Amino acid sequence: MPGAADTGGSLQTHGCGVAVKVLVMHTLPPVEAGEGRIAGEFDLHEAAHAIASVLAGSVVAGIRGTPSEVIELLRMHQPDVVFNLCEAPQGLPRLEPHLAALLEWLNVRFTGAGSDTLSLCRRKDLTNAVLEVAGVPLPGRSGFPCIVKPADEDGSAHIDSDSICATDEEIVLARARIPGHAMVQEFLPGREFAVSLWGQHDPDYYSIGETVFRGGLRLVTYAAKWHVESPDFADSPMHYDSDIEPSLREAIVEAARGAWRAVGARHVLRVDVRLDAEGWPRVIDVNPNPEISPEVGISRAVREAGWTWSDFIHKLVEWA
């Protein structure tokens, strides 16, 4: 298979003593990442091998992601569980839910969100409509300052400091910089938190990190997330030792758990929460496929909560 690599055998044993065959499947980064994006954003090779390193005898396969390729890979290895790291099948992030749907159609167990959740959360405007109906607190949809962001992209794509607008003219300019659908929301002035949730069907566990903005930066830009040599990256560190008053912590976690339930999440979810002018938490983003590379994203969050990387990965396989 193109890009496939076998790490050894094929058996993984869990506490119940039953051997489980695990296939760690990831999509290869696209040749062209799209306007304003870098291919490294979609390079999951390191994450896949880090996951395989704690799943004895698992198989790692890097694929382009055509249906026939996936079906042949499944036929070849006959896995009990696919550890799904397929974010851009055929180099297209919009096909992420399709691969999960293929696994569902073939009745193959896999880690991470189902196709319905992945499809919903790719459209931030539709996600917000679902969250609103469920009573999850959200930013307003009018007034200044506001933020203009893509409705159908993830990874903070096309978001920079100029995404914050103070006039109608600035909104027009910000919309013009976004190649697809755009949405406008109230820009909240308060603290920003990344809430990582995990559990089989319910958000039983959580960890809260706070993005601390410096140097005049007011939001997480694309550069802050992916350009590690940029000033934005340096000016937006994530802290897990933040002093959060107990009632505020409870409100933040409840908002995040409400988002989990509303979008039908499973296994893992990251919810970005920001405080409004009165200090109340509001959900600004829901990510059902958060960064899982070693030392960052969800892997750092679970360690901050007292879990080991190995325990977390084994639980995801068990929950599939």
How would you describe what is shown here?
The chain has eleven helices and 15 strands. The chain is of the alpha+beta class. Helix 3 packs antiparallel against helix 4 (115-121). It has a five-stranded mixed sheet with strand order 1-5-4-6-7, with helices on both faces. It has a five-stranded antiparallel sheet with strand order 13-12-11-14-15, with helices on both faces. The protein has a three-stranded antiparallel sheet with strand order 9-8-10. The protein folds into two domains: 4-110, no CATH class; 121-139 and 188-319, 2-Layer Sandwich (D-amino Acid Aminotransferase, Chain A, domain 1).
Summary of the model, kept short:
The chain is an alpha+beta fold.
Tags for this model:
alpha+beta; five-stranded mixed beta sheet; 320 residues; 22% strand; D-amino Acid Aminotransferase, Chain A, domain 1
Which CATH first-tier class of the largest domain would you pick? Alpha Beta
Strand order in space, largest sheet:
1-5-4-6-7
How far apart lie the N and C ends? 25 Å
Beta content: 15-25%
CATH superfamily of the largest domain: ATP-grasp fold, B domain
> If helices are DSSP runs of H or I spanning 4 or more residues, what is the number of helices?
11
Global Rg: 20 Å
How much helical structure, as a percent, in the residues? 25-40%
Main sheet overview: 5 strands, mixed
Shape descriptor: globular
Assembly classification: single chain
Structural class: alpha+beta
Q: Architecture of the largest domain, CATH level 2?
A: 2-Layer Sandwich
Number of domains: 2
- What is the number of strand segments? 15
Question: What's the CATH topology label of the largest domain?
Answer: D-amino Acid Aminotransferase, Chain A, domain 1
Mean pLDDT: 91
Written as H for each helix and E for each strand, in order along the chain, the element string is EEEEHEHEHEHHEEHEEEHHEHEEHH
Low-confidence stretches: 1-17
